[in-house]
Protein backbone atom coordinates (compact mmCIF):
# COMPACT_ATOMS: atom_id res chain seq x y z
CA UNK A 1 0.00 0.00 0.00
CA UNK A 2 1.12 3.51 -0.73
CA UNK A 3 1.55 5.45 2.46
CA UNK A 4 1.85 9.15 3.04
CA UNK A 5 4.18 9.92 5.91
CA UNK A 6 2.70 12.61 8.03
CA UNK A 7 4.55 14.05 10.99
CA UNK A 8 4.96 12.19 14.29
CA UNK A 9 1.81 13.45 15.95
CA UNK A 10 -0.04 12.05 12.99
CA UNK A 11 1.47 8.60 13.21
CA UNK A 12 -1.90 7.00 13.71
CA UNK A 13 -3.11 8.88 10.68
CA UNK A 14 -0.28 7.27 8.74
CA UNK A 15 -1.60 3.85 9.59
CA UNK A 16 -5.04 4.77 8.34
CA UNK A 17 -3.91 6.82 5.41
CA UNK A 18 -3.47 4.23 2.71
CA UNK A 19 -5.31 2.82 -0.23
CA UNK A 20 -8.14 0.82 1.18
CA UNK A 21 -11.39 -0.60 -0.03
CA UNK A 22 -12.65 -0.95 3.50
CA UNK A 23 -14.21 2.18 4.97
CA UNK A 24 -13.30 2.58 8.65
CA UNK A 25 -15.68 5.44 9.31
CA UNK A 26 -18.31 7.38 7.40
CA UNK A 27 -17.51 11.07 7.64
CA UNK A 28 -18.53 13.64 5.06
CA UNK A 29 -15.96 16.20 3.98
CA UNK A 30 -16.49 19.23 1.71
CA UNK A 31 -13.71 21.16 -0.03
CA UNK A 32 -14.68 24.69 -1.12
CA UNK A 33 -12.32 25.87 -3.86
CA UNK A 34 -11.75 22.27 -4.91
CA UNK A 35 -10.66 22.97 -8.50
CA UNK A 36 -7.70 25.11 -7.43
CA UNK A 37 -4.06 24.29 -6.91
CA UNK A 38 -4.53 23.30 -3.28
CA UNK A 39 -8.07 22.02 -3.77
CA UNK A 40 -7.24 19.36 -6.36
CA UNK A 41 -4.26 17.86 -4.53
CA UNK A 42 -6.10 18.04 -1.22
CA UNK A 43 -9.12 16.31 -2.73
CA UNK A 44 -6.85 13.49 -3.92
CA UNK A 45 -5.33 13.04 -0.47
CA UNK A 46 -8.75 13.09 1.21
CA UNK A 47 -9.99 10.56 -1.36
CA UNK A 48 -7.32 8.20 -0.01
CA UNK A 49 -8.70 8.35 3.53
CA UNK A 50 -10.70 5.34 4.72
CA UNK A 51 -12.40 7.58 7.29
CA UNK A 52 -14.35 9.43 4.58
CA UNK A 53 -17.58 8.19 2.99
CA UNK A 54 -18.55 11.34 1.03
CA UNK A 55 -16.26 13.89 -0.55
CA UNK A 56 -18.07 16.96 -1.85
CA UNK A 57 -16.11 19.19 -4.20
CA UNK A 58 -17.34 22.75 -4.66
CA UNK A 59 -15.91 25.53 -6.84
CA UNK A 60 -17.21 28.34 -9.00
CA UNK A 61 -15.76 26.59 -12.09
CA UNK A 62 -13.86 23.55 -13.43
CA UNK A 63 -14.90 21.17 -10.68
CA UNK A 64 -16.89 18.69 -12.78
CA UNK A 65 -13.79 17.26 -14.43
CA UNK A 66 -11.85 17.13 -11.18
CA UNK A 67 -14.65 15.14 -9.55
CA UNK A 68 -15.09 12.79 -12.54
CA UNK A 69 -11.36 12.09 -12.56
CA UNK A 70 -11.11 11.53 -8.81
CA UNK A 71 -14.23 9.37 -8.66
CA UNK A 72 -12.42 6.59 -10.57
CA UNK A 73 -10.02 5.94 -7.68
CA UNK A 74 -11.07 2.70 -5.98
CA UNK A 75 -11.21 4.08 -2.45
CA UNK A 76 -14.37 4.14 -0.31
CA UNK A 77 -15.61 7.72 -0.57
CA UNK A 78 -18.22 8.86 -3.07
CA UNK A 79 -17.17 12.01 -4.88
CA UNK A 80 -19.74 14.62 -5.91
CA UNK A 81 -19.26 17.91 -7.73
CA UNK A 82 -21.04 21.20 -7.07
CA UNK A 83 -20.59 24.27 -9.26
CA UNK A 84 -21.50 27.86 -8.47
CA UNK A 85 -23.47 29.60 -5.74
CA UNK A 86 -26.74 27.82 -6.55
CA UNK A 87 -25.15 24.44 -5.64
CA UNK A 88 -23.14 25.62 -2.64
CA UNK A 89 -25.82 24.83 -0.04
CA UNK A 90 -26.24 21.26 -1.30
CA UNK A 91 -22.48 20.68 -1.13
CA UNK A 92 -22.62 21.35 2.60
CA UNK A 93 -25.62 19.33 3.76
CA UNK A 94 -24.69 16.85 6.50
CA UNK A 95 -20.99 17.63 6.23
CA UNK A 96 -18.70 16.98 9.24
CA UNK A 97 -15.60 18.86 8.07
CA UNK A 98 -15.50 21.81 5.66
CA UNK A 99 -12.13 22.83 4.25
CA UNK A 100 -11.86 26.25 2.59
CA UNK A 101 -8.91 26.83 0.23
CA UNK A 102 -10.95 29.16 -2.06
CA UNK A 103 -9.42 32.45 -3.06
CA UNK A 104 -6.53 34.07 -4.87
CA UNK A 105 -2.90 33.22 -4.08
CA UNK A 106 0.08 35.60 -3.85
CA UNK A 107 2.41 36.64 -6.64
CA UNK A 108 6.02 37.79 -6.02
CA UNK A 109 6.18 41.11 -4.18
CA UNK A 110 2.80 40.68 -2.48
CA UNK A 111 2.09 40.15 1.21
CA UNK A 112 -0.70 37.85 2.32
CA UNK A 113 -2.58 40.94 3.47
CA UNK A 114 -2.60 42.15 -0.16
CA UNK A 115 -5.10 39.31 -0.79
CA UNK A 116 -7.53 40.67 1.79
CA UNK A 117 -9.72 42.69 -0.59
CA UNK A 118 -10.63 39.66 -2.71
CA UNK A 119 -10.44 36.80 -0.24
CA UNK A 120 -12.30 38.45 2.67
CA UNK A 121 -15.52 38.53 0.63
CA UNK A 122 -15.03 34.96 -0.60
CA UNK A 123 -14.58 33.64 2.95
CA UNK A 124 -17.55 35.72 4.18
CA UNK A 125 -19.85 34.20 1.55
CA UNK A 126 -18.66 30.63 1.99
CA UNK A 127 -18.86 30.74 5.79
CA UNK A 128 -22.36 32.22 5.53
CA UNK A 129 -23.37 29.12 3.58
CA UNK A 130 -21.65 26.87 6.14
CA UNK A 131 -23.64 28.59 8.91
CA UNK A 132 -26.88 27.98 7.00
CA UNK A 133 -26.24 24.37 6.02
CA UNK A 134 -23.83 22.61 8.41
CA UNK A 135 -23.37 24.82 11.47
CA UNK A 136 -21.98 21.92 13.52
CA UNK A 137 -19.14 21.14 11.13
CA UNK A 138 -15.45 21.65 11.88
CA UNK A 139 -14.39 24.58 9.64
CA UNK A 140 -10.80 24.66 8.35
CA UNK A 141 -9.82 28.02 6.86
CA UNK A 142 -6.86 27.96 4.47
CA UNK A 143 -7.62 31.12 2.42
CA UNK A 144 -5.20 33.95 3.15
CA UNK A 145 -4.67 36.19 4.98
CA UNK A 146 -5.48 33.54 7.62
CA UNK A 147 -4.72 36.04 10.41
CA UNK A 148 -7.79 38.01 9.21
CA UNK A 149 -9.98 35.42 7.46
CA UNK A 150 -10.45 33.38 10.66
CA UNK A 151 -11.73 36.42 12.62
CA UNK A 152 -14.00 37.18 9.65
CA UNK A 153 -15.39 33.66 9.79
CA UNK A 154 -15.93 33.95 13.55
CA UNK A 155 -17.87 37.21 13.16
CA UNK A 156 -20.06 35.81 10.38
CA UNK A 157 -20.85 32.74 12.47
CA UNK A 158 -21.68 35.01 15.43
CA UNK A 159 -24.01 37.09 13.26
CA UNK A 160 -25.73 33.85 12.27
CA UNK A 161 -25.95 32.77 15.93
CA UNK A 162 -24.04 29.54 15.34
CA UNK A 163 -20.47 30.38 16.36
CA UNK A 164 -18.69 27.58 18.20
CA UNK A 165 -15.08 28.67 18.78
CA UNK A 166 -14.14 25.04 19.38
CA UNK A 167 -14.88 24.21 15.76
CA UNK A 168 -13.28 27.07 13.83
CA UNK A 169 -9.66 26.52 12.78
CA UNK A 170 -7.12 28.53 10.83
CA UNK A 171 -4.93 25.97 9.12
CA UNK A 172 -1.35 26.66 10.19
CA UNK A 173 -0.22 23.06 9.81
CA UNK A 174 2.08 23.96 6.92
CA UNK A 175 4.21 26.03 9.29
CA UNK A 176 4.69 22.96 11.49
CA UNK A 177 5.39 20.74 8.48
CA UNK A 178 8.04 23.18 7.26
CA UNK A 179 9.58 23.62 10.69
CA UNK A 180 9.84 19.84 11.10
CA UNK A 181 11.43 19.45 7.66
CA UNK A 182 13.96 22.26 8.04
CA UNK A 183 15.00 21.27 11.58
CA UNK A 184 15.41 17.61 10.61
CA UNK A 185 17.57 18.63 7.62
CA UNK A 186 19.70 21.04 9.62
CA UNK A 187 20.32 18.67 12.54
CA UNK A 188 20.40 15.40 10.58
CA UNK A 189 17.45 13.96 12.50
CA UNK A 190 15.02 11.29 11.44
CA UNK A 191 12.03 13.23 10.05
CA UNK A 192 9.48 11.00 11.71
CA UNK A 193 10.81 11.96 15.15
CA UNK A 194 10.82 15.73 14.78
CA UNK A 195 8.02 17.93 16.06
CA UNK A 196 8.28 21.70 16.42
CA UNK A 197 5.31 23.68 17.78
CA UNK A 198 4.65 26.85 15.80
CA UNK A 199 2.58 29.57 17.47
CA UNK A 200 1.28 33.09 16.77
CA UNK A 201 -0.27 33.52 13.34
CA UNK A 202 0.32 32.67 9.69
CA UNK A 203 2.19 35.56 8.05
CA UNK A 204 5.80 36.77 8.28
CA UNK A 205 6.96 37.50 11.81
CA UNK A 206 3.64 36.37 13.27
CA UNK A 207 4.80 32.80 12.50
CA UNK A 208 6.81 31.85 15.59
CA UNK A 209 8.44 28.41 15.68
CA UNK A 210 9.29 27.47 19.26
CA UNK A 211 12.58 25.73 18.51
CA UNK A 212 13.38 25.37 22.22
CA UNK A 213 10.35 23.06 22.45
CA UNK A 214 11.47 20.81 19.59
CA UNK A 215 10.94 17.12 20.20
CA UNK A 216 13.25 15.29 20.50
CA UNK A 217 15.22 17.81 22.52
CA UNK A 218 17.83 19.45 20.25
CA UNK A 219 20.41 22.11 20.98
CA UNK A 220 20.83 24.94 18.50
CA UNK A 221 23.38 27.74 18.32
CA UNK A 222 21.98 31.29 18.38
CA UNK A 223 22.88 31.53 14.68
CA UNK A 224 20.98 28.34 13.85
CA UNK A 225 17.92 29.54 15.77
CA UNK A 226 17.84 32.82 13.90
CA UNK A 227 18.45 31.20 10.51
CA UNK A 228 15.79 28.51 11.01
CA UNK A 229 13.23 30.97 12.40
CA UNK A 230 13.63 33.33 9.46
CA UNK A 231 13.50 30.46 6.95
CA UNK A 232 10.27 29.10 8.47
CA UNK A 233 8.75 32.60 8.52
CA UNK A 234 9.67 33.19 4.87
CA UNK A 235 9.01 29.70 3.54
CA UNK A 236 5.76 30.74 1.84
CA UNK A 237 7.59 33.57 0.08
CA UNK A 238 10.36 31.13 -0.91
CA UNK A 239 7.73 29.14 -2.85
CA UNK A 240 5.97 32.24 -4.25
CA UNK A 241 9.30 33.45 -5.66
CA UNK A 242 10.24 30.04 -7.06
CA UNK A 243 6.85 29.81 -8.79
CA UNK A 244 7.53 33.27 -10.23
CA UNK A 245 3.95 34.41 -10.76
CA UNK A 246 2.29 30.98 -11.02
CA UNK A 247 0.94 31.07 -7.45
CA UNK A 248 2.01 29.93 -4.00
CA UNK A 249 2.46 26.64 -2.16
CA UNK A 250 -0.14 24.09 -3.26
CA UNK A 251 1.38 20.61 -2.89
CA UNK A 252 2.96 21.03 0.54
CA UNK A 253 -0.19 22.91 1.57
CA UNK A 254 -2.42 20.08 0.40
CA UNK A 255 -0.24 17.63 2.33
CA UNK A 256 -0.48 19.79 5.46
CA UNK A 257 -4.23 20.34 5.08
CA UNK A 258 -4.79 16.60 4.57
CA UNK A 259 -2.92 15.95 7.81
CA UNK A 260 -5.18 18.40 9.61
CA UNK A 261 -8.31 16.85 8.08
CA UNK A 262 -7.15 13.37 9.05
CA UNK A 263 -6.44 14.53 12.61
CA UNK A 264 -9.90 16.12 12.80
CA UNK A 265 -11.55 12.94 11.56
CA UNK A 266 -9.65 10.81 14.05
CA UNK A 267 -10.78 13.17 16.81
CA UNK A 268 -14.38 12.99 15.57
CA UNK A 269 -14.03 9.22 15.53
CA UNK A 270 -13.19 9.19 19.25
CA UNK A 271 -9.38 9.03 19.27
CA UNK A 272 -8.42 10.69 22.56
CA UNK A 273 -4.83 11.49 21.60
CA UNK A 274 -4.96 14.07 18.81
CA UNK A 275 -2.93 17.27 19.01
CA UNK A 276 -2.28 19.82 16.28
CA UNK A 277 -1.17 23.44 16.06
CA UNK A 278 -3.91 25.71 14.75
CA UNK A 279 -4.84 29.40 14.67
CA UNK A 280 -7.95 29.58 16.86
CA UNK A 281 -9.87 31.74 19.30
CA UNK A 282 -7.60 31.78 22.30
CA UNK A 283 -7.00 33.12 25.77
CA UNK A 284 -3.36 32.08 25.95
CA UNK A 285 -2.27 35.68 25.27
CA UNK A 286 -4.14 38.99 25.27
CA UNK A 287 -4.93 38.48 21.55
CA UNK A 288 -8.36 37.01 20.76
CA UNK A 289 -6.93 34.66 18.11
CA UNK A 290 -3.62 32.88 18.41
CA UNK A 291 -2.04 29.74 16.98
CA UNK A 292 -0.92 27.13 19.48
CA UNK A 293 -1.12 23.43 20.00
CA UNK A 294 -4.67 22.31 20.69
CA UNK A 295 -6.14 19.00 21.78
CA UNK A 296 -8.88 17.84 19.44
CA UNK A 297 -11.88 15.74 20.41
CA UNK A 298 -15.34 14.83 19.16
CA UNK A 299 -16.64 18.34 19.86
CA UNK A 300 -13.67 20.21 18.46
CA UNK A 301 -11.04 21.84 20.63
CA UNK A 302 -10.94 20.15 24.03
CA UNK A 303 -8.06 22.23 25.34
CA UNK A 304 -5.49 24.80 24.32
CA UNK A 305 -2.00 23.69 25.37
CA UNK A 306 -0.46 26.54 27.37
CA UNK A 307 2.76 24.74 28.31
CA UNK A 308 4.47 25.56 25.00
CA UNK A 309 4.32 29.24 25.94
CA UNK A 310 5.90 28.67 29.33
CA UNK A 311 9.66 28.84 29.83
CA UNK A 312 10.37 30.49 26.48
CA UNK A 313 13.91 31.53 25.62
CA UNK A 314 14.71 35.24 25.53
CA UNK A 315 14.71 35.11 21.69
CA UNK A 316 11.28 33.47 21.63
CA UNK A 317 9.86 35.83 24.27
CA UNK A 318 11.05 38.87 22.32
CA UNK A 319 9.71 37.45 19.06
CA UNK A 320 6.37 36.78 20.75
CA UNK A 321 6.09 40.36 21.95
CA UNK A 322 7.18 41.63 18.52
CA UNK A 323 4.48 39.72 16.63
CA UNK A 324 1.57 40.84 18.80
CA UNK A 325 1.00 44.33 17.32
CA UNK A 326 0.95 43.00 13.73
CA UNK A 327 -1.34 40.11 14.59
CA UNK A 328 -3.66 42.45 16.52
CA UNK A 329 -4.00 44.75 13.48
CA UNK A 330 -4.80 41.79 11.19
CA UNK A 331 -7.42 40.45 13.62
CA UNK A 332 -9.07 43.86 13.97
CA UNK A 333 -9.08 44.34 10.19
CA UNK A 334 -11.01 41.08 9.80
CA UNK A 335 -13.46 41.88 12.59
CA UNK A 336 -14.12 45.38 11.22
CA UNK A 337 -14.72 44.01 7.72
CA UNK A 338 -17.21 41.44 8.97
CA UNK A 339 -19.03 43.87 11.25
CA UNK A 340 -19.55 46.26 8.32
CA UNK A 341 -21.47 43.53 6.49
CA UNK A 342 -24.47 43.68 8.81
P1 LIG B 1 -5.86 28.75 -6.85
O1 LIG B 1 -6.08 30.05 -7.57
O2 LIG B 1 -5.07 27.69 -7.52
O3 LIG B 1 -7.26 28.10 -6.45
C1 LIG B 1 -8.26 28.84 -5.83
C2 LIG B 1 -9.59 28.24 -6.21
O4 LIG B 1 -10.59 28.97 -5.52
C3 LIG B 1 -9.91 28.33 -7.71
O5 LIG B 1 -10.28 27.06 -8.22
C4 LIG B 1 -11.08 29.31 -7.77
O6 LIG B 1 -12.00 29.02 -8.80
C5 LIG B 1 -11.68 29.07 -6.40
N1 LIG B 1 -12.58 30.15 -5.98
C6 LIG B 1 -12.48 31.48 -6.15
N2 LIG B 1 -13.55 32.10 -5.64
C7 LIG B 1 -14.33 31.15 -5.10
C8 LIG B 1 -15.58 31.14 -4.45
N3 LIG B 1 -16.24 32.26 -4.21
N4 LIG B 1 -16.08 29.95 -4.06
C9 LIG B 1 -15.43 28.81 -4.28
N5 LIG B 1 -14.25 28.74 -4.91
C10 LIG B 1 -13.72 29.89 -5.33
O7 LIG B 1 -5.20 29.13 -5.43
P2 LIG B 1 -4.46 28.14 -4.40
O8 LIG B 1 -3.02 28.10 -4.72
O9 LIG B 1 -5.22 26.88 -4.30
O10 LIG B 1 -4.60 28.99 -3.04
C11 LIG B 1 -5.85 29.22 -2.45
C12 LIG B 1 -5.72 30.06 -1.20
O11 LIG B 1 -4.98 29.36 -0.18
C13 LIG B 1 -5.00 31.39 -1.37
O12 LIG B 1 -5.67 32.40 -0.68
C14 LIG B 1 -3.63 31.14 -0.74
O13 LIG B 1 -3.02 32.31 -0.29
C15 LIG B 1 -4.03 30.24 0.40
N6 LIG B 1 -2.94 29.43 0.98
C16 LIG B 1 -2.92 29.29 2.34
C17 LIG B 1 -1.94 28.52 2.94
C18 LIG B 1 -1.93 28.33 4.42
O14 LIG B 1 -0.92 27.88 4.97
N7 LIG B 1 -3.01 28.58 5.14
C19 LIG B 1 -0.94 27.91 2.15
C20 LIG B 1 -1.00 28.08 0.79
C21 LIG B 1 -2.00 28.85 0.20
C1 LIG C 1 2.19 29.73 2.55
O1 LIG C 1 2.63 29.88 3.69
O2 LIG C 1 2.79 29.04 1.70
C2 LIG C 1 0.87 30.32 2.19
O3 LIG C 1 0.40 31.16 3.20
C3 LIG C 1 0.86 30.96 0.84
C4 LIG C 1 1.67 32.22 0.76
O4 LIG C 1 1.15 33.21 0.24
O5 LIG C 1 2.83 32.21 1.17
From TrEMBL:
<keyword id="KW-0520">NAD</keyword>
<comment type="subunit">
    <text>Homodimer.</text>
</comment>
<dbReference type="GO" id="GO:0006099">
    <property type="term" value="P:tricarboxylic acid cycle"/>
</dbReference>
<keyword id="KW-0732">Signal</keyword>
<protein>
    <recommendedName>
        <fullName>malate dehydrogenase</fullName>
        <ecNumber>1.1.1.37</ecNumber>
    </recommendedName>
</protein>
<dbReference type="GO" id="GO:0005739">
    <property type="term" value="C:mitochondrion"/>
</dbReference>
<keyword id="KW-0816">Tricarboxylic acid cycle</keyword>
<feature type="domain" description="Lactate/malate dehydrogenase N-terminal">
    <location>
        <begin position="28"/>
        <end position="170"/>
    </location>
</feature>
<feature type="domain" description="Lactate/malate dehydrogenase C-terminal">
    <location>
        <begin position="173"/>
        <end position="337"/>
    </location>
</feature>
<keyword id="KW-0560">Oxidoreductase</keyword>
<comment type="similarity">
    <text>Belongs to the LDH/MDH superfamily. MDH type 1 family.</text>
</comment>
<dbReference type="GO" id="GO:0030060">
    <property type="term" value="F:L-malate dehydrogenase (NAD+) activity"/>
</dbReference>
